[in-house]
Amino acid sequence: VQLQASGGGLVQAGGSLRLSCAASGRTFSRYYKGWFRQAPGKEREFVAAISGTGGITYYTDSVKGRFTISRDNAKNTVYLQMNSLKPEDTAVYYCAAGGKNKYEYDYWGQGTQVTVSS
To answer: Mean pLDDT across the stretch 13-35?
Structure first.
């Protein structure tokens, strides 16, 4: 199983990025998918999660109203649309799949860097 994250980059504050994470090797249509991030010197933190059908989403408070998680099970891909980005959103973003709940996952992607300049 591989999770390939992409879409990171350098953006000015107030800008937008869309992260994608394509899974291969198995399907996860019945399981949660999520996004986490880790800033320099900090522990990895939960960002967002989406249920298998896409009907339930969760967000950490700091991104509510700015980030949107979605998934396309036909493409075995999960997305994170990030708007109104802030410098404090700078981190390596990791996708995760195979989750039985919004926090615990069996598979992780390699991470994609998001840098927001002020």
So the answer is: 96
